[in-house]
Amino acid sequence: MKEAKEHSLQQYVDTNGHFSLVRNFRLADLVTIMNGVCGSLSVFSSARYLLSNDPDYLWAALGLPLAGLIFDFMDGKVARWRQESSMLGQELDSLADLISFGVAPALVAFTVGLRTYLDTVVLTAFICCGLARLARFNATVALIPKDTKGKSKYFEGLPIPSSLGLVAVLAYWTKQGWIEGQEGLPWGTITLWGAEGGRGEIHLVSVVFGLWAAAFVSKTLHVPKP
After folding, report:
1. Bridge partners, residue 103, by sequence
2. Predicted pLDDT at 139
């Protein structure tokens, strides 16, 4: 296994030139990068909505992570079809997932109304727990029990693409007008300390994001693979 890893890395040592990295990309790697493109465009769409209040940008921000999921499914199929995989592809997959299913959903949540100081603390924890979950997956995937086909039997911790469930809820609330600037988020806020509207205020919806973040890094939660 060590020799295979060293052989995989050698291609990046032996190739020189400004665009040598790009030339080493496989088709599956390019599909993976499209996942990251979708997540990045979602982030910028959220920012444009905050600047313009144009709902088209908000809907784009909500929809693009789903497009990223499609590319996330496709890259594995393309790799198997082409019978090619690489260590670079594994790292690209995790980095793209962090953007599309960690950063983008958190910024969408901020955009629709989770904007208090404590809300942003929870959303930051959500992103960082997603980051930790992906890093642990890369480091320990070889230790997870495999089935007869060599595939892992389960996910350790909630897979980060599951955050699209939260995005779907936010999309429904957007359709109903239950967002900042309209009727406001459901369940409202509570003030943990200080004056109302101060740093101690938090939306109850943020608790859901906090629990989701905890599920990302849980070691005892085993989610069967479909």
Report:
1. none
2. 85
**Side chain identity at 75, as an amino acid letter?**
D
**In sequence order, what are the residues at sequence separation of 6 or more whose Cβ sits closer than 8 angstroms to the Cβ of residue 44?**
none
Q: What is the DSSP letter of 141?
A: G
Tell whether the model's pLDDT for residue 161 goes beyond 90.
yes
DSSP, residue by residue, 151-220: -BSEEES--GGGGHHHHHHHHHHHHHT-STTTT--TT-EEESSSSTTSTTEEETHHHHHHHHHHHHH-SS
Distance of CA 76 to the CA centre of its chain: 17
CB of 200 within 8 A of CB of 206?
A: no
Beta bridge partners of 154: 224
Average pLDDT over residues 132-146: 83
Q: How far is CA 220 from CA 7, 142, 156, 157, 215, in A?
A: 35, 17, 7, 7, 9
Rounded mean pLDDT of 92-116?
97
Phi then psi dihedrals of residue 58, to 5 deg: -65, -45
What global pTM score does this model have?
Answer: 0.87
Q: How far apart are CA 91 and CA 78, in angstroms?
A: 16
